[in-house]
Design goal:
InterPro entries: Amino_acid_metab_prot_put (IPR014965), Lp2179-like_sf (IPR035942)
Pfam family, one: DUF1831
Helix content: 10-25%
CATH superfamily: Lp2179-like
Radius of gyration: 14 Å
Mean pLDDT: 93
CATH topology: Lp2179-like fold
CATH architecture: 2-Layer Sandwich
Strand order of the largest sheet: 3-4-5-6
Largest sheet: 4 strands, antiparallel
Structural class: alpha+beta
Number of domains: 1
Protein name: Cysteine desulfurase
Number of strands: 7
Organism: Streptococcus cristatus AS 1.3089
């Protein structure tokens, strides 16, 4: 998957695009880790029960030029994409995803627009 200026997950209520004022230090302050190739990556396990180790892996990658991003939600192994917005049974996981993304919006890393 290539880096995109705006990212829209299937069945998600919002489209996320990088904020024009995003800074590298803001990414590091928000627990993004710099990869070997210079990109910034944030990985979180979205769990229904905290600390259970059972959930879906959210991975956000922002390129080193800060002009493109990728957002993926996969199974715990990271091999198979999962659509958490397709079913109401993942309501808690959806809320956790929106909470995390809203915190990144508040910190001028992403902007969100309703779909």
């Amino acid at each position: 998957m290539a880096f995109q200026t705006s990212v829209s997950l299937a069945n998600c209520n919002f489209t996320y695009s990088l904020h024009p004022n995003v800074k590298k230090f803001a990414l590091r302050d928000n627990t993004f880790v710099e990869t070997k190739v210079g990109n910034y990556e944030l990985s979180r396990l979205l769990e229904e029960v905290p600390n259970s180790g059972d959930g879906f892996l959210l991975k956000i990658i922002i390129n080193k030029d800060l002009n493109g991003a990728k957002i993926n939600i996969t199974d715990k192994s990271g091999l198979r994409l999962v659509n958490i917005f397709k079913s109401e049974k993942h309501d808690i996981i959806q809320q956790k995803f929106y909470f995390l993304m809203d915190s990144l919006v508040e910190r001028d890393i992403f902007e969100k627009t309703p779909q």
